């Protein structure tokens, strides 16, 4: 594939020797001397051997991911959070001094990874109301011809949702690898995950850290056409995903009804919290994710909330005075609003 970095072109995927065996003496693994009962206690089943390397292909997990998304497991790679997936894509496609683009503001790690890999990060400004102008992205991409375009949809930190037709327009106009980071897509509509086979250059990223509430197990995945999946598999580290995460992830993805129920609850709370924030002298932006972005005109709002034991996300530079708050439970949201009202009252 043309877009792949020169240094990656000749690579082959790590060959994990995963065949049935009677005696396993091929991978220098130690014996399980410390936790003899671990599989029993956690009901992991007989296949769970803590002393053997995990399934390098995460077969069972990817099957569940495929079922969850409605796509073949051969179009999926799983890894340590979508963070690892972002890094893997950059590692595969973007060489030193090559350009990668995204809207700004967006997920901060895009430009951080760009720096780490000595790439040239180009941010395309949002509109004043933090809506995103895809025609402007297409125009800039036409001028710069970046290796990679990262689209966070819904966007972190603003919660703005780009319509699916606009993403399709971008894909029809550019030749770059387009990554759509759908970390928060369960809370919105318009996933591109089932469209990956239509395009030669589309990668969709998902995570279990948000709608599935499993940030601690570090599990994310990418969905793309098989050509891209095969290339990225050549770059992926051997056994990148631990067995415990593979197991819990597979169990979790079967619980679709519970996930849908939780997402509905968050959306309801999002409406409640947006309404309540809107009653305060704040500018509140419509969110399609599990957080709300707002500006308050109070520079140290986060510090004052912290004194009351409440943490929200603050920003610096152009976004000083803007905040992002995760939608909590009704009790948490009510406490937050109570504290904010107090701060606003003292501000007068
Ligand atoms: N993408 C976006 C847009 C995010 O907001 C986050 C987490 N804040 C991530 C990716 C990373 O998520 P994880 O590594 O937990 O899957």
TrEMBL record:
Principal EC category: transferase
Catalytic activity: L-histidinol phosphate + 2-oxoglutarate = 3-(imidazol-4-yl)-2-oxopropyl phosphate + L-glutamate
Amino-acid biosynthesis recorded as keyword: yes
Span of the signal peptide: none
EC number: 2.6.1.9
Keyword Amino-acid biosynthesis: yes
Chain positions found as N6-(pyridoxal phosphate)lysine: 210
Pathway(s) served: Amino-acid biosynthesis; L-histidine biosynthesis; L-histidine from 5-phospho-alpha-D-ribose 1-diphosphate: step 7/9
Keywords, alphabetical: Amino-acid biosynthesis, Aminotransferase, Histidine biosynthesis, Pyridoxal phosphate, Transferase
SUPFAM superfamilies, per database record: PLP-dependent transferases
Domain Aminotransferase class I/classII large: 44-340
Cofactor(s) listed in the protein's UniProt record: pyridoxal 5'-phosphate
InterPro entries: Aminotrans_II_pyridoxalP_BS, Aminotransferase_I/II_large, HisP_aminotrans, PyrdxlP-dep_Trfase, PyrdxlP-dep_Trfase_major, PyrdxlP-dep_Trfase_small
MF (Gene Ontology): histidinol-phosphate transaminase activity
Family: Belongs to the class-II pyridoxal-phosphate-dependent aminotransferase family. Histidinol-phosphate aminotransferase subfamily.
Matching HAMAP family: HisC_aminotrans_2
Record note on quaternary structure: Homodimer.
Protein known as: Histidinol-phosphate aminotransferase
């Amino acid at each position: 594939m043309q877009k792949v970095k020169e240094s990656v072109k000749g690579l082959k995927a790590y060959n994990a020797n995963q065949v049935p065996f009677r005696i396993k003496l091929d991978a220098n693994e130690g014996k399980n001397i410390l936790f003899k009962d671990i599989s029993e206690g956690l009901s992991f089943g007989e296949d769970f051997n803590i002393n053997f390397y995990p399934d390098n292909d995460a077969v069972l997990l990817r099957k569940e991911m495929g079922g969850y998304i409605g796509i073949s497991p051969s179009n999926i790679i799983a890894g340590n959070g979508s963070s690892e997936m972002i890094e893997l894509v950059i590692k595969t496609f973007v060489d030193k001094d090559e350009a990668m683009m995204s809207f700004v503001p967006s997920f901060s790690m895009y430009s951080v990874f760009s720096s780490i890999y000595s790439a040239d990060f180009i941010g395309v400004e949002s509109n004043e109301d933090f809506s995103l102008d895809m025609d402007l992205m297409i125009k800039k991409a036409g001028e710069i011809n970046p290796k990679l375009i990262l689209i966070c949809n819904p966007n972190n930190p603003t919660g703005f949702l780009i319509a699916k037709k606009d993403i399709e327009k971008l894909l029809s106009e550019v030749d770059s690898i387009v990554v759509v980071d759908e970390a928060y897509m369960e809370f919105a509509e318009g996933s591109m995950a089932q469209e990956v086979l239509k395009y030669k250059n589309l990668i969709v990223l998902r995570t279990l850290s948000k709608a599935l509430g499993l940030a601690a197990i570090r599990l994310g995945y990418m969905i793309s056409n098989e050509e891209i999946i095969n290339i990225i598999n050549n770059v992926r580290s051997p056994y990148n995903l631990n067995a415990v995460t593979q197991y819990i992830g597979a169990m979790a993805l079967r619980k679709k009804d519970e996930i849908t129920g939780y997402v509905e609850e968050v959306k309801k709370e999002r409406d409640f919290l947006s309404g309540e924030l809107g009653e305060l002298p704040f500018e509140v932006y419509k969110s399609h994710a599990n957080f709300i972005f707002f500006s308050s005109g109070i520079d140290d709002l986060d510090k004052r909330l912290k004194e009351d034991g409440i943490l929200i996300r603050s920003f610096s530079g152009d976004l000083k005075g803007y905040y992002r708050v995760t939608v909590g439970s009704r009790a948490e949201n009510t406490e937050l609003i109570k504290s904010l009202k107090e701060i606003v009252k003292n501000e007068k």
